[in-house]
Amino acid sequence: MLGVAGINLDEDRSFSARRGGGQQDGGDWGNNNRWDNRTDNNARGKYPQETTKENWTVPLPANQGWRICCTNCRELFGSGNTGINSDKELFGTGNTGINFDKYEDIPVEATGENCPKNIETFEDCSLGEIIRNNITLSRYSKPTPVQKYAIPIVLNKRDLMACAQTGSGKTAAFLVPVLNRVYENGPEESANVAQSRQYGRRKQYPLALVLAPTRELAYQIYDEARKFAYRSRVRPCVVYGGADIGAQMRDLDRGCHLLVATPGRLVDMLERGKIGLEHCKFLCLDEADRMLDMGFEPQIRRIVEKDNMPPSGVRQTLMFSATFPKEIQMLARDFLDNYIFLAVGRVGSTSENITQKVVWVEEMEKRSFLLDLLNAAAGPDSLTLVFVETKKGADSLEDFLIREGYPATSIHGDRSQKEREEALRLFRSGDRPIIVATAVAARGLDIQNVRHVVNFDLPSDIEEYVHRIGRTGRVGNLGLATSFFNEKNKNIVRDLMDLLVEAHQEVPSWLESMAYEARPAGGSRRGGGRRFGNSGFGSRDYRQQTKPKQQQQQQQGGAGGGYNSNFNNPMANQYGQYSNYGGSYGGAYSGGGNNAAPDWWGN
Q1: Range of the domain at 453
Q2: Distance CA 596, CA 238 (A)
Q3: 127 falls within a domain
Q4: How far apart are CA 582 and CA 372, in angstroms?
Q5: What's the structural domain count of the chain?
Q6: pLDDT per residue as tens digits for the range 64-105
Q7: Considering only CA atoms, which of 188, 133, 178 is closest in space to residue 155?
Q8: Same domain for 247 and 358?
Q9: Phi, psi at residue 483, to the nearest 5°?
Q10: pTM for the complete prediction?
């Protein structure tokens, strides 16, 4: 595993110190045949030079691949370990999904000109030897729905706009074909690269760039990239805010072919002259909606439009998101060229891998109710993720759980990167199987064995709810999502009702009453249940919406008109009747999650 050079291991074994890099001081550049046809510039501490004579499609020998991967393993595993003994250290013991067969029923819709044919197995497409070997090592038995469509689209050099939820296998859906194409194309040699070497400026010109909204997601993508780059000459790097920029720059100095970055830190690196985008042939925006929610649109537009990145049509651009509001579709219109729109059905809606429960709980009773849920945990290996709205609330709830004897930790934006990574490590390992989190952990975190997501505080919008419950039931696993609801959450009642009905979930009668009374005359405020329509897809390609609006609503309308107008029980009685809801949460999992997204262009 690659590490950052120049880090004092006695002072910092934090997340940022382990993130990745090349040769550590005291290593052996002379025996590291990572770059063939080396020149004198390849001596220790010099810029490693690639040449166009290399054949990047040929995997390096296994022992040599591990030498490249392990020269800095001391950073990750301590000074007493000089290397990795087996593939397990990099690839783990197996893939996270256990119910892949249930994914076969998830609908997928690809629209656009001359859509490439989807695949059914990884052998159906022309992947090179390096990628095929690493897919096997990753124990991917079959592609997920998004991979079946996205991989051939990218291999056919088409731009892609994909509506797919985190946990659907979308990271491999873009890394596998992008890295395969990088191997086929080989290294980039140009006057810019030669000039940077001539004057000793260690400026990197990555061939592929992946933008992600958070440092956690950026690292996870980087971690996957290392797996698919194993035994290749391609060197992934990651840069993100909240970590030592000096260490990240030293890491970049050792070479970077695929860069994973958060927008803010990448802009910083561009301004410092450490990164050049002139040769970036592949651009991927992951969790694009989240990046816009966090206010990164100016940085994204600056990176794509003002830093000499090859234009649309020359570079290949991929956008992935769980939701596609108007702003995202406008970004796609500006960045993508003749793209394929891929709508992946809401993960879990047909596979029944997420059970959603909504319970009425007064504010003062939330802590007591949470303890009841934790006592009914599915098993010793099951992890519980509890979402709260505020940082203060996260700290307070963690302290309460610890006082009550529950092994808990917490994560939020005020924690240092080292503290955040330590909390995630304790959670993943099961040492602290309960983690209290704010929205910082709502997107992108890929944590195995999360069996229960608890919305201690419901979010104010349904999109955030969709992303939160997506932390469980990932890649075919079973999961449960429980949400505490009371008067403070009335603003979300209509959308929550639409989602539950569309996903065939159990709906409390009191929630039906509230949703019906809150619904304006004429149906849903989103246009006849448009957001959670009957289509089974998270979003629609706005380019296909050429039919009259009335006909569109008839085709795409959903749960908006399906409510019984004869509710006559007072809501107070309904609440009282439902206040005893609880019982066992270890029953059968039925129903599903949701990956819905609005398409505003037809409104």
Answers
A1: 354-540+559-602
A2: 30
A3: no
A4: 8
A5: 2
A6: 655 554 443 333 333 333 344 456 667 764 554 435 565 666
A7: 178
A8: no
A9: -120, 130
A10: 0.64
